[in-house]
Amino acid sequence: MKQRVHGVIRGAVQGVGFRPFVYRLALELGLDGWVNNSSQGVFFEAEGEPEALTTFLHRLQSDHPPRAFIQSFEHAVLDPSGASGFTIRPSDPSGEKTALVMPDIALCDECRSELFDPGNRRYRYPFVNCTNCGPRYSIITALPYDRPNTTMHGFTMCPACRREYDDPADRRFHAQPNACPACGPHIELWDAQGAAHGMHDEALTAAVSALAGGSILAVKGIGGFHLMADAGSEPAVRRLRERKHREEKPFALMAPSLGLINDLCEVDEEEERLLSAPEAPIVLLRRRKAQSLYVASNVAPHNPYFGIMVPYAPLHHLLLAGFGRPVVATSGNLSDEPLCTDEHEALRRLAGVADYFLVHNRPITRHVDDSIVRVSQGRAMMLRRARGYAPLPLRLPAPVPDTLAVGAHLKNTIALSRGRDLFVSQHLGDLETPEAFAAFRAETAQLQGLFDVHPSAVVSDSHPDYLSSTYAASRPGAHHRIQHHVAHVAACMVENDIAPPFLGVAWDGTGLGNDGSIWGGEFFVVRDGRFERRAHLRTFLLPGGDTAAREPRRSALGLLHAIAGDAAFTWEDLHPVAAFTPAERSTLRQMLDRRFHVPVTSSAGRLFDGVSALLGVRQRNTFEGQAAMELEWSARPALCEPYPLNITPPEPGSNALAETLIIDWEPLVRGIIADVREGIDTGVIAGRFHRTMAAAICQVARRLELERVALSGGCFQNALLSRWTAGMLSDAGFRVYMHQRIPPNDGGIAVGQIAAAAYQGMLKF
Ligand code: ZN
Ligand code: ZN
Ligand code: FE
Questions:
Q1: Entry pTM
Q2: Is pLDDT of 655 > 70?
């Protein structure tokens, strides 16, 4: 089936023959569509068969005119519009002439050559950059993007740098962070007391030895600090885990070369493109073997994937070239706190974690974490949008008044709209600590100034107790509240440009529902400016509320209690029941009987947790989502029969349009219990469970009879669920939409809040 790709290419792409290049390539591949220039970059749309489009996207990056340089390339796959022929459209002067803030761009090939060229004046200089690469968003303090408005304002260019900067023919013409060893920032290595142990190359050599000796190194990079350790050293990784209080959550890796990544992991064409793209995100890759010489088993315990990136700052290139093997490169923070950006602050906050600090004196304006991407069915899906992508905008279908959306609670981002531009902040983190909330407030104020947005309205989650919601309520102007799962669906709608009517599926951990219960297994029919909740999972009680998110066995007990009442407590042959002591069981029983601290939920995420516990996969999480992830990994994805399910009412009733469908998981859970008792292989049961959940979505879609289905919410980070749901829906003739540039998790909520408010007519000029 034909598809359309909408793309924006930013960078040195104007006046270098880029449009004719796109045109010729499209003709050669038999694609329809158009290309044009606007003040924001080169925009294109291309329609054709999926294979031709894939080739097109790859050749845009590999075969472009030599003088062009791509600093950012975002695209999304959309429905075809029926274009015929390919045209160069006239430049679009109507587009808002607003200066864009560019994201931070990974070191370019030319600068890398200079970095390793002994004859070059920037040989081994950790701050080499040019107009095509280097820091942007993380050093800018105000617009326009000129040196005085960056954290480079304190460095005066030497005559040689100045000549480059002033010469239109030079690669460093108006490169704002331009610098060299004579005039720019420099690095130092400090010990944990802040005493300097060398500068310049001496600092690098000492840092490499420290890593090799098993020390933990805090490294000041582009958007903040990393904590680095020798990935191959089990003791070093264990020390990092102990000091960071991080039990089993996987650590990201930075590997010196693509070749080494290929040895460790399976890398397809799209994954390789992402790894080496100017955005340089962490890419989740399936590892080849359980064991590796270069990566100790405690880097990502029980995990079939590694999150890997390549060096993107010149400092990383030097460090990894010296070390020669992969390092753990995890965020330089304490859990739930924002990334450290300042070296003195890092010394204080990371005392007791890092042995040495590799620091520099180019200040960082804002913390920008590494982005995380996974490729699913040949397409990239963003899991954390930050460095390399933030703060580039999405496009709204129609202009709206200036609006601020404050997101949810976990994995927070904020969004700002101006006209049709919808700016998305970098990942700001979980608003769990005073430090995180302070960073959220500071960033919210900063970004309004940077984008010159003066919000007349603010949009928040409908949960009144989220810190983001209380912040929104304290602001002047109109305040709109958007239900959490409506926001998820709206985020998927806006980034895929889906025109209603369609069915929006939000399968998620938890979010407050309109009826006061906790939602998370929801289906919305989106049409006529409304989101109608038309189906959901059967509800169950969640003993302990939020505690249940950390203890999957509680979700399991809720499920068992729903089908068997108090008798469930006697089923000691089942893992989750056995995981509680008799005393705990009697407390839980009283809680359930008295309905004390046991919220009602329709959450799909908690159902996944409960099944994980029933299968004995995991009773307690050491990090968010662990039980559901391990359930996914345990599944044998061979073709298998789904368990039975009930959807009620069973047949379309007389008043089909008014009824709400309930997916009753009882036959499924009973089937799983029977299989567990019979000793059926866990992988088989987990596989059948995933298939059942995909089938449930498919059955609801059939009943609601809408041609298009959008999948959103944290559950769709599960690659197996995504693949099977999308596959079954497509086979049944539905068109399926998944997230691409915006995360399916709560990182997409802010975008969805503005999109939902706009769609429901709440934002009026
Ligand atoms: Zn460069
Ligand atoms: Zn200089
Ligand atoms: Fe959510």
A1: 0.95
A2: no
